[in-house]
Design brief:
By secondary structure, the chain is α+β, with helices and mostly antiparallel strands. Helix content is about 20%, strand content about 30%. The chain has a 6-stranded antiparallel β-sheet, with no helix packed on it. Helix 3 packs parallel to helix 5. About 55% of the residues are buried.
Length: about 425
């Protein structure tokens, strides 16, 4: 049975206080779960500036739609309580404008206080959505707080000026005069859709996060067009899979992170953000998760890890995912400039493990071989120049699409059904 993060909420004065608890939650197949995480951006730290009596409007891009939405708000890295005084959800229109905004409540109330280290999920808001919809989450903070964030939104999100008050119900975006390229406060959106079969979660570092996905060629940048390979995969699922086997996709990439916590040269800002440390909050706390696409390792090698600690972390993460009924698909480590001969020997040793029997020596369910997709046919320890974002590590929009096109959709559905039936 999958574990999920559940929040208990109790009244204190006029607010609610949320306290994080880890407990059992129904699996996607258990009692035919209606809620699936349709969008996510994992929190990784705190913003550099506080919010003060102002509103934020964060735009989320849904991989699947449904008859209602609910949102996840985190204070995981916060040092003080976080109070959300009002929240709304609506269809994102032009820039910061919103249509059909409706109230978002928490245990029936419009205000909630989340303690340091805590998080909460909202009640359902009856906003009807479709695959590919952009939904704007607006939140008002009356006091002063430093919000948690995901740094790489690859789009503009919006804030009103400090001291400007509550503008969460505004249809116009006129009050939202400031923009940021990070996502504050909200880290996941669920949709209510019992027809879905599950949620696929790409899990990894910057190549999962989407670095390069705004690069459409020389002198060409696309911001806010959702061209990560995980977005492309979501569009393929909607277009190519039958209605009876539709899946959501929720991205759990954080740039700069590693699979293993044991790499000796991890920069301080990424300490504690390794795959095992993130597993509970960034995978198991989501809803309806049926599979993970695991794409880690380039940073592990760059930060001084050899084969052993990388594979130790793989095995630990894969075991926990399997124990929670989640299928695991693993990419070999892709090329990176600056690797020493020993780094490349270690890379190929890890990749041989992943490719063994096409199932990571029986520890995963399948292997989407992104190294095969991206490597330069003339220089196999380099990325194909047609896909290179310019740094030899990340891929441009063409490379993102190539990765998404390579993934076998029957693999994602067949292996999941085999796990569900105990085969």
């Amino acid at each position: 049975m999958m574990r999920s993060q559940r929040i208990t909420v109790f009244a204190t004065g006029f607010a609610l206080v949320a306290t994080a608890l880890i407990s059992s939650a129904p699996t996607a197949e258990g009692a035919r779960n209606s809620w699936f995480t349709s969008w996510a951006q994992s929190q990784e730290g705190l913003a550099t500036a506080a919010l003060n009596n102002q509103s934020v409007r964060m735009v989320t891009h849904l991989s699947q739609g449904g008859s209602a939405v609910r949102i996840r708000v985190q204070n995981t890295f916060g040092k003080t309580p976080l109070t959300i005084d009002r929240a709304t959800a609506g269809h994102s229109a032009d820039a910061a404008s919103v249509a059909d905004a409706r109230p978002v409540t928490f245990a029936g109330r419009g205000t909630i206080t989340i303690p340091p280290g805590g998080e909460t999920w909202s009640d359902d808001a009856g906003l009807v959505t479709r695959p590919g919809d952009d939904v704007a989450m607006s939140m008002y903070v009356a006091g002063t707080t430093v919000p948690g964030l995901h740094r790489s939104a690859f789009r503009d999100n919006y804030l009103t000026p400090p001291g400007s008050g509550d503008h969460t119900a505004d249809g116009s975006g006129a009050a939202y005069t400031q923009s940021v390229t990070s996502t504050y406060l909200v880290s996941a959106v669920d949709v209510r859709n019992p027809a879905l079969e599950g949620t696929i979660v790409p899990f990894g570092s910057s190549v999962v996060d989407g670095v390069g996905s705004t690069n459409c060629g020389s002198g060409c940048t696309e911001t806010g067009t959702n061209r990560r390979w995980s977005d492309d995969l979501a569009r393929r699922i909607v277009a190519e899979l039958p209605a009876s086997t539709q899946l959501a996709v929720a991205n759990a990439g954080i740039s700069g992170t590693t699979s293993s916590a044991a790499c000796p040269n991890i920069p301080g800002q990424f300490t504690g953000l390794d795959a095992l440390a993130r597993l509970d909050r960034d995978i198991l706390a989501l809803h309806g998760v049926s599979a993970v696409i695991y794409y880690y390792g380039t940073n592990d090698l760059a930060y001084g890890c050899a084969v052993s600690p990388i594979l130790d972390s793989y095995r630990q993460v894969f075991q926990q995912l399997r124990e929670n009924g989640i299928a695991v698909y693993v990419s070999p480590i892709t090329a990176r400039p600056g690797y020493s001969d020993q780094n490349n020997l270690d890379r190929h040793a890890v990749d041989n493990f992943v490719k063994q029997w096409n199932n990571c020596a029986a520890t995963c369910q399948g292997v989407p071989d992104f190294d095969q997709v991206l490597k330069d046919p003339l220089k196999p320890n380099s990325i194909n120049p047609a896909y290179d974002n310019g740094d030899g590590v990340h891929v441009n929009i063409a490379g993102q699409q190539a990765m998404a096109d390579y993934i076998s959709l029957p693999m994602l559905t067949q292996k999941r059904h085999e796990m569900s039936s105990g085969r």
